[in-house]
Specification:
Length: about 450
């Protein structure tokens, strides 16, 4: 039995050599069959069946991230990850729909389970499973995921990095400069109304109320508007950041707070001169017409998308040019193939795709394969610049994974990584490392979509 390299390149050379010998008449057809059958293949793809779906939940990466492992009847397994912060239940409830299925039929299985995904974290289970199916299909056939998507447009993907906020612009500028020193070529900052809301005269809001809790009330319904003073203070904060880091590096801005559309426009206009790379999620993505009014009024790119499930809402935003940039999170938007479709659709409208991401290297690799295989992919988020053990969660890939603000896509089969079991076990957010989940074997609802 020949021994082959982990990345499969020597196995491919071996097979190619056999085919070459047969083609030259130096190897009989029956010998070629014997030659090929002596190759240690990971799997017989046509007979591959899903036998289990198990979970291990990693914490503080910096988010909580349920990793999933889909096992098969042939000893190979696929890795996926539920969206950061989402419940593992979103994946486990899909197990009964997957048992006995061939994981290589990625798109068919995605269409079978996609009715169980939804807005924001609700999409996390379907997307995590989809990643694991691609990993399995790649391992079964011995090719990297990006190749199954049609091949790559680039070998490495540009990353943008987040930086935890500080109310002190000096301190914050220092943190951003450290990112630049590490080679990052694109930055994102938080610029929320919380920077100014404790200063009297900065925010008009219903008196007697505490500021509305984030995430529960849509921006238009809070009754909160920034004053000229509040806007000037926020713009001044950005001015001091730009003084420190210069005007050249793209600087995206996020988490403005639940302020009304008019405040978004007034703030956006005050920020124009600092060239934001994009203004992110100023209002909820569903408000297409309102989003368009911000995009048309402000001469800086407006972006949204991290909570959108599936392609159709992105198509509406692109068709109407309600945003300048779409910003899907692959772990919500529908997984690897759906996100490539989203990018390809947006390209037809001249809209670039930035990619939102906050998770472990498992989901990161899913993003990376999609990003290199999608022509209009602009930049991919990296949220773990301050998590020193992040890369050590996985093996089988060239390190460092993040190198001077870029990530090189690996050529190994599937996602191209293996789990480093010991490190994962050191960072579990709850007990249990891929324990059996028989309680999910028979979960049922009436799955038919059309009556
Ligand atoms: Mg965001």
């Amino acid at each position: 039995m020949p021994r082959f390299s982990k990345d499969g390149s020597s196995r491919r050379s071996f097979l190619k050599a056999g085919a070459g010998l047969a083609g030259a008449g130096l190897l009989a057809e029956k010998d070629l069959v014997a030659y090929q059958s002596s190759v240690r293949t990971a799997s017989k793809p046509s007979d591959l069946k899903i036998t289990d779906l198990r979970v291990a939940v990693v914490g503080r990466a910096p988010m909580t991230a349920p990793l999933i492992r889909i096992d098969t009847n042939q000893g190979i397994y696929g890795l996926g990850e539920v969206r950061d912060g989402a419940s593992k239940t979103f994946a486990l409830m899909l197990k009964s729909r997957l048992l006995g299925e061939n994981p290589c039929q990625v798109d068919r299985l995605f269409r079978k389970i996609k009715q169980f995904g939804g807005h924001a974290r609700q999409g996390g289970g379907v997307c995590g499973v989809e990643m694991a199916l691609w990993d399995l299909a790649g391992k079964a056939y011995g090719v990297p995921v990006y190749q199954m998507l049609g091949g790559k447009f680039r070998d490495a993907m540009r990353l943008y990095t987040d930086t935890d906020e500080s109310h002190d612009p000096k301190e914050y500028a220092q943190r951003l400069k450290e990112r630049l020193d590490r080679g990052f070529t694109w930055l994102k900052m938080d610029l929320g109304m919380d920077l100014v809301q404790n200063t009297p005269g900065t925010v008009t809001h219903p008196l007697g109320d505490a500021f509305s809790p984030r995430g529960l009330v849509k921006h238009m319904f809070t009754g909160m508007e920034l004053t000229d003073k509040g806007i000037a203070m926020m713009a001044d904060y950005v001015a001091r950041i730009r003084e420190a880091i210069g005007m050249e590096v793209p600087l995206s801005m996020d988490h403005f707070g639940h302020i009304g559309v008019n405040s978004c426009i007034r703030l956006g206009k005050a920020l124009e001169k600092y060239n934001p790379a994009w203004l992110e999620d100023m209002i909820p993505w569903q408000e297409t017409e309102l989003m368009k009014s911000i995009t048309q009024a402000v001469d800086a790119p407006v972006a949204t998308g991290e909570d959108i499930y599936l392609k159709e809402p992105f198509a509406e935003l692109c068709r109407t040019h309600a945003v300048d940039i779409i910003h899907p999170d692959l772990a919500t938007s529908g997984g690897i193939l759906e996100t490539k479709k989203i990018g390809d659709m947006a390209q037809e409208y001249g809209v670039p795709m930035a990619m939102h991401f906050a998770g472990t290297p498992i989901s990161f690799l899913a993003n990376l394969h999609c990003a290199v295989a999608t022509e209009n992919a602009l930049v991919l988020e990296f949220h773990s610049a301050d998590v020193p053990w992040w890369e050590s969660l996985v093996n089988g890939i060239e390190k460092p994974i993040i190198n001077k603000g870029f990530a090189r896509v690996p050529d190994g089969p599937g996602l191209g990584i293996t789990l480093h079991e010991e490190v994962v076990k050191q960072h579990l957010a709850e007990p249990g490392y891929f324990e059996p989940t028989p309680e999910w074997d028979k979960e049922r609802s009436w799955d038919r979509l059309w009556s």
